[in-house]
């Protein structure tokens, strides 16, 4: 059913947060999402997912561009429930496994939707935190090479002299190739999952979703989580097998883990969580090393890592990887030199 809201409706609504575009309307049954970065593509994606999968998503009642403000407004159903990050600590093992199984089914279904281009479901440009400097200016991309170049353009803008970023760009060019483009939520986090008991009743926040390379969901799921949360301590993301156990190859799998490190450095420019990200990267590397048949000499890898010697946090990753090698007796080839 079509529905428009007024200034009075928004004034009477409760905002989810000071910088959040979500408003809970006074009727207690409806949400209005409107803000500077709200796009019609999000509403189009939600409708598409509801029509083509069994994934529980709030119903979109209307989506339009307000004539007065020029901003997009999405009117949708309010689903009652508890966020998974609130519910997870109180679950027993059986509850956790029930939730994991549901998530595995939903995201396998989501990933079964594929495209020949990297874009939103309506063919509009990609949206991602990396692309915030020029929303709508990245993509759509017809090849993974073009997408990689878009990432490189975003990463290096204003950071041309950063040795770590240049190193990661080389790794991106050499390793991330030949992937399918699958439907991706792109903000998989417990705060975006609503449950009642151990039943998932809604998956929220589809503003960044679209068709991305098949590794992207996992890479983004570990980009900046609360590493001390019970969610991460239970290795839930890694237990959702199928996201990262597909045939990427050792280098690609290890490189996924580095995205967590990159996001902290490039976007947030702070040290919180970097040590955890480095340890997680080492953990993923140790898992993928079991499949590696061609391992570079340690000296070769260290020579590349030394290019970023000025960044003390990158040395944390180097140290963590070194400890992994000592434990496993193998050094995984993360990048092609």
Summarize the structure in words.
This protein is α+β, with helices and mostly antiparallel strands. The protein has two domains: 7-77, Phosphorylase Kinase, domain 1 (2-Layer Sandwich); 82-328, Aminoglycoside 3'-phosphotransferase, Chain: A, domain 2. Helices cover 42% and strands 13% of the residues. It contains 13 helices and eleven strands. The protein has helices spanning 7-12, 40-52, 84-87, 93-111, 144-156, 163-175, 216-221, 230-233, 236-239, 250-268, 274-288, 298-305, 312-328, and strands spanning 14-15, 22-24, 30-34, 60-65, 72-77, 82-83, 114-115, 181-184, 193-196, 199-203, 210-213. The protein has a five-stranded antiparallel sheet with strand order 1-2-3-5-4. It has a three-stranded antiparallel sheet with strand order 6-9-10. A hairpin with a 6-residue loop joins β1 (14-15) and β2. α6 (163-175) packs antiparallel against α10 (250-268). The chain is globular. It starts with 6 loop residues before the first helix and ends in a 9-residue tail after the last helix. Mean pLDDT is 78; it is low at 246-253, 269-277 and 283-337. It comes from Bionectria ochroleuca. InterPro entries: AGP_Transferase, Aminoglycoside_PTrfase, Kinase-like_dom_sf. Residues 38-233 form the Aminoglycoside phosphotransferase domain.
């Amino acid at each position: 059913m079509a529905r428009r809201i007024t200034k009075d409706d928004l004034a009477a609504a409760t905002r989810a947060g000071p910088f959040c575009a979500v408003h809970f309307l006074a009727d207690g049954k409806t949400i209005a999402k409107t803000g500077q970065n709200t796009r019609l593509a999000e509403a189009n994606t939600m409708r598409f997912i509801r029509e083509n999968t069994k994934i529980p998503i709030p119903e979109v009642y209307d989506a339009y561009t307000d004539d007065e403000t020029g901003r997009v407004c999405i009117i949708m159903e309010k689903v009652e429930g508890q966020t998974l990050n609130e519910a997870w600590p109180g679950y027993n093992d059986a509850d956790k496994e029930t939730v994991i199984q549901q998530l595995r089914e939903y995201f396998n279904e989501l990933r079964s939707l594929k495209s020949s281009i990297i874009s939103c479901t309506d063919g509009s440009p990609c949206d991602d935190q990396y692309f915030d400097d020029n929303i709508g200016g990245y993509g759509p991309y017809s090849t993974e090479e073009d997408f990689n170049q878009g990432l490189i353009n975003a990463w290096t803008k204003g950071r041309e002299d950063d040795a770590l970023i240049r190193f990661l760009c080389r790794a991106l060019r050499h390793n991330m190739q030949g992937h399918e483009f699958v439907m991706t939520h792109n903000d998989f986090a417990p705060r975006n999952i609503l449950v009642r008991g151990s039943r998932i009743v809604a998956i929220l926040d589809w503003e960044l979703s679209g068709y991305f390379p098949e590794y992207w969901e996992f890479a983004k799921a570990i980009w900046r989580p609360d590493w001390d949360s019970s969610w991460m301590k239970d290795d839930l993301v890694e237990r959702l097998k199928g996201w990262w156990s597909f045939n990427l190859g050792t280098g690609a799998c290890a490189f996924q883990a580095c995205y967590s490190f990159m996001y902290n450095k490039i976007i947030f420019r702070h040290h919180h969580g970097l040590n955890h990200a480095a340890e997680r990267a080492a953990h993923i590397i140790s898992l993928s090393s079991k499949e590696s048949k061609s391992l570079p000499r340690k000296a070769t890898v260290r020579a590349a890592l030394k290019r970023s010697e000025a960044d003390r946090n990158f040395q944390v990753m180097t140290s963590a990887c070194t400890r992994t090698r000592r434990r496993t007796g193998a050094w995984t080839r993360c990048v092609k030199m």
